[in-house]
Amino acid sequence: MALFFGGLVRSKNVLSVLAQCMGIAGIVTLLWWAVGYSLVFAPGNAFIGGLDYAFFRGVDATPNPTYSNWVSHNVFAMFQLMFAIITPALLIGAAAERIKFTSMMLISVLWLFFVYIPVAHMAWGSTGLFNGVANPGAAIKAIDFAGGFAVEMASGWSALALVWLLGPRKGYGRDPMPPHSMVLAMAGAGLLWVGWYGFNVGSALGADGVASNAFVATTLAAAVASLLWPALEWILHGKPTVLGFCSGIVAGLVAITPGAGFVGSGAAVAIGALGTFVSFFAAMRLKHLLKYDDALDTFGVHGVAGTVGTLLTGVFASVAINPNLQANLGGLAGNLLWLEQLKAMGIVVVVAVAGTLAATWITRLVVGLRPETEDEIAGLDYLDHGETGYRYDEN
User: Fold this and answer.
1) What percent of the chain lies above the pLDDT cut of 90?
2) pLDDT tens digit string along 259-301?
3) Nearest Cα to Cα of residue 348 among 310, 392, 383
4) What is the pTM of this model?
5) Domains and CATH numbers, the chain
6) How many Cα atoms within 13 Å fall on the side-chain side of residue 284?
7) Which 3 state secondary structure label does DSSP give 181?
8) What stretches of the chain show up as alpha helix (H) in DSSP?
9) SS3 201
């Protein structure tokens, strides 16, 4: 993701984005070990877990049967850390080129506790409010295979709130702001496609039929999306762009994430296509219509495609694909599951927006948000890190 985001910003801000990605990886890892993992996956109430696993107490090579009968508990915790790191890092794409390093770090820490941890527990925790697959007592019988609620919707809708609070970059809508290196962005998109198999296939927690189905669904959704986005560009603007191929790949991967282990191949193609179609117009039209500066389209891609994919998961989920749906969902699968998805989606949007407002407000009070105008125009690489990624400056 660092390569993808780094390639899409202007050269004067590339190190700023890379530093934010690396900083979040380090600090979230330590917080996950201390309390984050426990607050998501330890037994608790419907909204938050307890502290049974704080500082990885009891998280060892013995399987935790609550989540898997054979995967070591520490391996499961590390697998889930991947989601915890990348989700706040997605906010970088919304705030890129106009937020200080210290501000992004503090927002990410607060956001982890205000948004990610409660949403992840509600979606995946054994006592979660809408963990319809694993929690027989869940008030809402929703499903999320690999991050529709906790990763894509949570980060996407938070990104929309953050861009409204930050305001646009200096010169936005007036000065050209093209990506400085589509080569880096393309390399990043390719790595994301490969890495996404770890997300989606790995969420099966086993080398079984559900995992193989997730592999197929992920591939098909990304493939149709990688063609659809540049095809729409070609029709509307006369040329397909490399950025369009990259954006399509990511939109398709995002859309299929919540349903990868629940839907068949035909449904995967439909979800990838529909999620990308709506995402394209959100990123290419809605953003300009409403005049918000979502720098790298975190809302337009992750928020919109993730929302569409999460809803469509409730439409296309099949017991034949994933027998685990039968145990606690029964007749909901293929019937009224989409309504349960809508209920959970509404909760996620409220938590995401409210949590982002709180995290941003606190950060503004403590360290401020944006650099001085002249520093922002000059670029954040030297301001925040005392170094530059290229030998020339660009305005």
Assistant:
1) 85
2) 999 999 999 999 999 999 999 999 999 998 999 999 999 999 9
3) 310
4) 0.94
5) 2-385 (1.10.3430.10)
6) 16
7) coil
8) 2-8, 14-31, 37-41, 73-95, 101-111, 117-124, 154-166, 182-202, 209-237, 242-256, 265-281, 287-290, 304-316, 324-329, 337-366, 373-378, 380-385
9) helix
